[in-house]
């Protein structure tokens, strides 16, 4: 068994609080403990919610408004009924005050946190009879577990504990045998699907966003908010092989919104939260050289490149007009679509030239990370939900035009389909009609049916089995369920009780980069 390592973070907070005059902070400290600590950590270094310290809040505006009214699209509620304007003001001042010690998480800390399971012995072949390529992992956030589902018999083969607050898609090794799971507090867990056993875990950051697998399965990149780094782990040993400080060309440190795998380019692509740059990190030992820029040397009478990097993990900067995040890639990873901070438009950047190819009219916070693609009238199209508007945008990826905006019963979060399915499954999770799932025809772009899997209960996130025969929907409640539909007839086949199931990930669909899944 693996013992979860508790760091000295709680101690850090205590020290921070003790060093601040008690009279000045008595109330905000209490208010923080009562209203904020459960999600943002007793030490303000983050939990399910992000860290609340100057290093991460520095560029965030309107914190008082966020505390009062909450943040739409996130799980942050508003507190205006519980806290007065004075209390909110004091709380903002408290959050903006630096901790007594700046939190650090060095390569040595990462190494020291590494725990490999002592009782793990790799199996020579899968220890079950099911098709290992048709395994679907179900993340159950209610009690921090993952269920391992046999996609043919629709039975749970194993259920194992995960680190706290898993976020984003787990990433599989290219052969589908191992899976890596990340939690918002920076832990990365490695699990062997063949052996149905945990291999180990390591804390790659204090406050992390997501992970990405290299094209060859050797490296796992972890995007961090805190510290402002990208941690690269060996997938074999979970040891940190490189920790890259993320600092823009002008010296501004930046959080990493997300890291994406770009297997066709043999690289990782990074979205920088606080700088107008996209980074590409090579996973190819022969990459580069990439230059940060050019200067004219009057002494030598020539223009010289500076900041050159070459080989494995070489970094290439792609300057953009404004910070972009929430990326989607076209097939072949030639172009990237990102959104601006305000979520008012989409920008298409050619990853080879770094130039802007197009701008897309995508108001209402498009959630490109949930985008999926399919073929329609000989064209590849992509669809994205919008977190602020009850609409799905369908974009033609050959000429970057908007094909249609499909009105839905409210804003949703996730889309899924499968090559064998004529339908897109779209939730409306962020709306009052959160118990509905729209079934949309991929050719006519019409909603052909709306399912209500469990009336009054949140239905969100669909995944298909390997062959597309079944569609699995989460009833996203603590006393929830996984509802399995026949993907062709849209009839319910089975219901498995689960604890707040969130994302689901089929091995085959993920390792083959199926059109119907977000990557
Ligand atoms: Fe997510 C994926 C960002 C809030 C559940 N989410 C992702 C990804 C990004 C992202 C960049 C793609 C990473 C990947 O899979 O490698 N999410 C964000 C946010 O910026 C946002 C809006 C605010 C935040 O708090 O970070 C946000 N996300 C949420 C939630 O509140 C959700 C609904 C509940 C939760 O668990 O936190 C949530 N996000 C998910 C899930 C995925 C995800 C289940 C994987 C979807 C998939 O099918 O691949």
UniProtKB/TrEMBL annotation:
Is-annotated flag, keyword Nucleus?
A: no
SUPFAM superfamilies reported for this sequence: C-terminal (heme d1) domain of cytochrome cd1-nitrite reductase (SSF51004), Cytochrome c (SSF46626)
Q: Does the keyword Membrane apply?
A: no
Signal sequence, start to end: 1-26
Its source organism is Paracoccus lichenicola
- Please indicate which superkingdom the organism of origin belongs to: Bacteria
Supply the name of the protein.
Answer: Cytochrome C oxidase Cbb3
Q: Which Pfam families match?
A: Cytochrom_D1, Cytochrome_CBB3
What are the Cytochrome c domain coordinates in residue numbering? 23-99
Identify the InterPro entries for this entry.
Answer: Cyt_c-like_dom, Cyt_c-like_dom_sf, Cyt_cd1_C_sf, Haem_d1_sf, Host-pathogen_enzymatic-act
Q: Name one GO molecular function term.
A: electron transfer activity
Give the keywords, sorted: Heme, Iron, Metal-binding, Signal
């Amino acid at each position: 068994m693996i013992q979860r390592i508790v760091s000295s973070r709680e101690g850090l907070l205590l020290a921070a609080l003790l060093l601040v005059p008690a009279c000045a902070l008595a109330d905000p400290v209490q208010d923080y403990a009562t209203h904020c600590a459960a999600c943002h950590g007793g030490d303000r270094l983050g939990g399910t919610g992000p860290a609340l310290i100057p290093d991460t809040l520095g560029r965030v505006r309107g914190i008082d408004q966020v505390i009062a009214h909450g943040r739409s699209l996130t799980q942050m509620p508003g507190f205006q009924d519980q806290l007065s304007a004075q209390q909110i003001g004091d709380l903002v001042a408290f959050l903006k005050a630096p901790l007594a010690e700046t939190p650090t998480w060095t390569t040595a800390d990462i190494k020291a946190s590494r725990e490999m399971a002592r009782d793990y012995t790799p199996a020579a072949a899968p220890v079950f009879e099911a098709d290992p390529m048709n395994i679907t992992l179900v993340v159950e956030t209610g009690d921090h577990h993952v269920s391992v589902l046999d996609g043919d018999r629709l039975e749970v083969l194993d259920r194992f504990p995960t680190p706290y607050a898993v976020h984003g898609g787990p990433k599989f090794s290219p052969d589908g045998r191992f899976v890596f799971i990340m939690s918002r507090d920076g832990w990365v867990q490695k699990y062997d699907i063949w052996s149905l056993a945990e291999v180990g875990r390591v804390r790659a950051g204090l406050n992390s966003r997501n992970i990405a697998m290299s094209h060859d399965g050797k490296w796992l990149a972890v995007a961090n908010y805190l510290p402002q780094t990208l941690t690269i782990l060996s997938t074999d040993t979970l040891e940190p092989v490189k920790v890259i400080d993320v600092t823009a060309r002008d010296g501004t440190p930046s959080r990493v919104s997300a890291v994406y795998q770009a297997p066709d380019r043999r690289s990782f692509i990074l979205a920088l939260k606080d700088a107008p740059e996209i980074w590409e990190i090579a996973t190819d030992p022969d990459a580069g050289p990439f230059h940060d820029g050019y200067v004219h040397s009057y002494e030598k009478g020539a223009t010289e490149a500076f900041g050159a990097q070459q080989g494995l993990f070489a970094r290439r900067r792609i300057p953009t007009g404004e910070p972009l995040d929430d990326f989607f890639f076209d097939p072949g990873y030639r172009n990237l679509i990102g959104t601006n901070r305000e979520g008012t438009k989409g920008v298409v950047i050619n990853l080879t030239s770094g130039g802007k190819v197009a701008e897309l009219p995508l108001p209402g916070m498009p959630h490109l990370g949930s985008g999926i693609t399919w073929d329609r009238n000989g064209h590849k199209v992509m669809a994205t939900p919008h977190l602020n508007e009850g609409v799905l945008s369908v974009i033609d990826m050959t000429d970057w035009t908007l094909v249609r905006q499909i009105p839905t019963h409210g804003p949703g979060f996730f889309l899924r389909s499968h090559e064998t399915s004529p339908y897109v499954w779209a939730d409306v999770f962020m709306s009052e009609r959160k118990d509905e799932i729209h079934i949309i025809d991929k050719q006519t772009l019409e909603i052909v049916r709306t399912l209500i899997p469990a009336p009054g209960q949140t239905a969100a996130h669909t995944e298909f089995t390997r062959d597309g025969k079944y569609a699995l929907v989460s009833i996203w409640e603590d006393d929830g369920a996984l509802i399995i539909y026949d993907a062709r007839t849209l009839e319910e086949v089975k219901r498995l009780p689960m604890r707040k199931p969130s994302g689901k990930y089929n091995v085959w669909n993920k390792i083959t980069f199926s059109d119907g899944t977000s990557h």
